[in-house]
Structure formats: C-alpha cells, structure tokens
Amino acid sequence: MKITAVDAFYLSMPEVLDIGDGSQDMLLIRVRAGDHTGWGECETSPLTSIASLVCPMSHSACQPVLASVLRQNLNGPADIGRIAGEVRARSLDLLQADHTLSGIEIALWDLLGKAVDEPVHALLGCRTAAPKTPYASALFADTPQQTLDKARHLRTQGFRAVKFGWGPYGRSTVAADADQVHAAREGLGADVVLLVDAGTVWGEDVEAAALRLPSLEQAGVLWLEEPFVSGALRAYQALARRSGSVRLAAGEGAHNAQLAEHLIDYGGIGFVQIDTGRIGGIGDAFRVAGYARERGVRFVNHTFTSHLALSASLQPFAGSGADWLCEYPVEAKTLATTLTSNRITIDGNGQITAPRQPGLGMRLDLDAVRPYLLDIEVAVKGRTLYRTPDLVP
Amino acid sequence: MKITAVDAFYLSMPEVLDIGDGSQDMLLIRVRAGDHTGWGECETSPLTSIASLVCPMSHSACQPVLASVLRQNLNGPADIGRIAGEVRARSLDLLQADHTLSGIEIALWDLLGKAVDEPVHALLGCRTAAPKTPYASALFADTPQQTLDKARHLRTQGFRAVKFGWGPYGRSTVAADADQVHAAREGLGADVVLLVDAGTVWGEDVEAAALRLPSLEQAGVLWLEEPFVSGALRAYQALARRSGSVRLAAGEGAHNAQLAEHLIDYGGIGFVQIDTGRIGGIGDAFRVAGYARERGVRFVNHTFTSHLALSASLQPFAGSGADWLCEYPVEAKTLATTLTSNRITIDGNGQITAPRQPGLGMRLDLDAVRPYLLDIEVAVKGRTLYRTPDLVP
Fold it and tell me: B3-12 and B25-33: which strand pairing?
C-alpha cells in the first residue's frame, strides 16, 4: 500500500479552561493507504503541530513532517519504523516533530492492523493481551474534605487504584500537602492503591520534595510522580536514594525513547510512564517497555484523553503481565468521551484489556465530534498551506 | 519597564535548498519595553515557532509562549530568568516552546543591555570579554584530494582551526574515512587545529565509531563531534572510554540546559557545543558554561547563521579564557550576512571577541532584509491570530 493522505483535525471544547486537564482539545490524525483508514491522536498543541506538518523546509534536517510520510510504502511493521526514522532524521531540528509524529505513527499502526485484520499488539508479537488494573486519575480538590469525598466516590465506583495530583499539591505548606494525602487515603480505605502526582511542582529542588516523603510513606503511597521536571536526572536520583517505600514515577514528558531510558538509567525511577501520543508513537513506547522490563522497572501508560488514545497507549505493554497498572481517564471532557462510539470498559474484576478488534479496535463517531472541529487556515506568501479538511466525507 | 510588544518575523531566501545549511531562513524576534527595542534570532522552524507563540491554550501547562512574556516587568537580569521560567512552566507540554523562547530571551538581554548601556556579558558579570579562536566549518569534499585543496585554502585564509564534517564521512569504508581525515591534516599542516564532525552518522553504533578512532588519533584530531544522536548517552560514554587523545564533542541539539548537562555527566564529552538560539537563550547557555567549567569540560558555541546569533552565542562564555575556541560561520547565505550592518571580525591575531557595545552590539539593517520577509497569516475560527507585522516602522 502507498500512503495517499495524512490529514490533521484540531478539535476543541468551546471553552478551554486554565486547568490541568489535557482532554480539552485534541489533534486527531487520519491516514489513508490502499482502501484503509487509520486514526491516531497526538498529545500536543494542535495548532503548533499543524504548522510542523506543513511548514516550508528550513534546511535538509528541518523539513515538514508530512514530507517524510506521504507516498511512503506501508506493508508491514518495519515500514512504520522506517517512516518514523525518516521523520526523525529529516525533521531532526524541528522540535515539535516528535509530538506530531506520534499521532501519525499511531494511525499507521491502526491502519496496518485493519488491513491485515489483527489488533496492534498482535503485530508487536503479543497474541493475548494481559489485563491491567486501571487507576483513576483525579485532581486534588481545593480542600482535604473535598479530596476525601472525591476519593470515597472513586472507591464506590470500583477503582482498585487511584491517583491524585496537581491542584494545590506542593504549592503551599508541607502540612497542607500531608492533609491532602491523608484525606485521599482515608477516602479510599486501606486496600486501594494510592498514587500521588506532583506535576513537576518542585522543579529541581530535592529538599522540597524530600519534605513530603514522610506523609507519603505514612499513607502507603505506591509512587510519587514527577516531583521534578523530567530532565532533572540528578534530582530524581538523589530523591530515589531517600524515598524508602515510595517509588518515583516519571516519563510522560519523554518525546523520544532515549529520554525515557535516561530516567531509568540515571534517575532511579521505579515506574516509567509513557504517553504514546508524545514519545513518537507505539514503536518508541514498545522499545521503552522492553528496556524497562530488562531492568526491573515497571511500564505504565500516560493517558488523559480519549479511548482512542487509551487503546494506543495499552498496545506497547499489552503483552507484559508484570506491568499490571494502567492509567484510565475518568474526568475527560465530552469531546474526548464522544470521539469513540465504543469504549474500553472495566470488567467484573476491575480490570481492562486492550481491544481484540483489528488495529486499535476503536470506532470513531465523527458526526458526534464534528461540532468541535475548528476551522484553521495557515497561509505563507498568499498560498494556503493548511485548511481544515472535511472530517466526515 | 513593561514588555509592550513581542513580534516575530519569518525571513527566508527566495529558494531554500535541501542541504545542511541552516542559514537559509530565520525567525527574527523583536521585543519592546519602555523606549527600547531588543532583537534575537531563534534557530528554529519559523512557521512552527510562530504557531507556538500564538496558539490557543490547550490546558494550564500548554499555553502559547506569548502569554508568559507580554506585559511582564523587565528591570534586570533576574526578570529574564523569571520570564523564561514562566514560559517553561506554562508551556511545559508545548515542545516547540524552547526554540521559540530562545530568540525571545536573547532579545530581552539585548534590550536590557541597551537600556542600561552595558554589553550582555557585563550583565552576566564579565567585565572584559576574552578573545576566542574562531574555527571555520567546512564540509568534507567528495574526494580526499578536494578535501586537501579545501584545507589548504582555509589555511591560507588565516584560520588557526578548521572543522571538517558531513559529506561522505562515515558513509563508506573505514579506509576511505581515514583518507579524508589525513587529507584534511595534510592540507592544514601540523599547526592548525583539526576538528571532525560525524553529523550523528552512526546513530547509536559504538563499534562503527570506534573503528575510526585510530585515524583520528594519527591525524591529531582534537575532537570528534556528534558520532551519535544527542540522546545516545550510553554510546557516548562507551566511546569516550576508548577515544584516547580524541575528545568527544556534542550538545548542539540541546533544547534545555539539562540535556547538555546529561552529555557532560553521563556521556563523557570533552567539549559541549551550545546553540543559544535553541537551548532557551543566553541564560541557559550561561548555566551550561558554568556547569562545564566546574567539570573540566570546554564550552563552545554552535552558530551557523547571522552575526546577531554569533554575538548572542559568544556572550555566555565571553568571560572564560579557558574556553578558547568558537564556531564562526564562513558560508552563510546573504540573508544572514545582510541582517547586520556591522560584523564580528577576525583580528590580527586570528581571534574574535564579543562586541563591547551595549546589548548584543549589533546594528540591524532592516531595509536590507525586508525583501526576505514572508507574509504569513494564521487564522483560527475566522479570527486572525498572527499576521506578519511591519518590520520597518
């Protein structure tokens, strides 16, 4: 098959709020080859990624992403790796390219799986997908009491693992943070896995993070996520040496496999969190999952948006029973929940499994999301380089 | 002072060729505060960076770069650090932001220097700028004889240091690469510093790179640059342990200070090469220069474009006599050479020094570059978010 079209669609909620909720917009990618269509979602700034798709060439290593994808042959998994490699080489100096590539690469896997009638994880060599325990991601509420209520509610919904993060955490006193964490534990009860996400709030400040460790240990928190910005390897390593029973988790910001591997090699993390919509797609995430497994580090997806993104994020570690946790979006905006007409649901054991249907196994409801589509136009020297294509034929 | 305007200008040669020449276009940034104007150049894909400046917010950590700069106070160096920090935090998930920030941050230093009548390096605590030995960057020619002729020509031009790279190097046999390196040495003579740039040709393949070490040692090559992609820290470290008198050089791809520091901490490099137009600006480059100095690693600029960019790249290590080498563009396109009406020239000792004039010390010739300015329009939902502003009032 030859890739005949790569289209990008910027969808957005009517109002985007200044909160840590990444499901308020999306860049949806549609790829066509042969008689098949594949879909992927980039975790990105949509307008910026659209520009990276169609921008004029700056030099041989700063080319628009589209130039390395259109008209390529796509007949097997090796072609996807080759195309991603070409994007990386020819857009080496185009920083945004990794985020843009991610959605395209995911769409290529979806398309290939549909063409050969196999789920993506089967194309990666995994015949049966292992069930995962989904954790609910929630924001810390403004007050400990509200966090406690939220935790109780998530427990009654049947979640066996819950992550609280962002909101006021790390932004006032050590005591206030402890109150929040203890409220979360009280609301969840003793038997639900509790994870805490600091959202890079301490930058590179090891001591500020270390002051929170006692309350995290007391509350039996499994991991402390992103105490620091993702490049602060020395800070991660220093905190890991002092964190006792609390493991460190990081990696969502990795925009290539090597950045995630550095957190494993030099940062001392116990969980590596990969967003397939950012790291370059399913192939890079699969590489990291194998790398982590060999070193006793657990792989976890990072997913905050649609079930299309969730399916893409489950594929790279679907075959690994040891990687038992997965992130499961519970507070996504209607744009994200409306995108697919089927969903990856939690079974009677409180677990989820990557879809068995071909490709990513998700059916898109294009009519339902069309109202969220933004009209975009980008013109250079009077020539239109991008105009929003038709979403529904 | 309050920052009242941040304008971006996409300038391009009429024809952009598919060659490794980064001087074919530029994104020029103009910042205004009080009665002053500052200029900076981003080393970036211009259209993609324009989108990152003005894109709609996606969520609290994915905001347009402009939102963190406009209307900020600018009264001293600490304000520049604070503004850069805000961009990094509020555009954490906007990958392109680092390249965009770089030009803005440089323009802020230029503006502040002009406002207080001091060169930028003085604002960084350096009263007298140390002279640097510029090296000429040239491509390996197709045959060893042509490379020899090129080397002879550069020697007669008075260069005390020359870098050869790219072209056929690393792409055929070990013997052919040795012939190229020996030809370069023969043409330069024994007393000119010879540097070799492999342009990431071996990916992560340590053995392929190690096979070239004997010829590099025999030819007295000071550094082997970018044998691997910049994230391949394990490969860098493994090669550094075997490289004898040949030091490794890398870092031009670093889009924040930490990525460059990782090459020092874990990659075993001897020279760290920083492009202020990519790393986040002069502040980040200055941080890396200090970090390198404490660890016995030499700092070198990476500059392939205008003398505005060259001045910006000299400021962070102007005060360090130990960091004696600097990259000096010798084959830049007319857009880059036309941008400034003054130039940083090579003195009688074959050395260059950061300008002593306020700010970056460069005078822009806006009338001369206006023909290269591209008309751009970016519209979302019928609302124009960006239209090329007036370059000349």
Answer: antiparallel
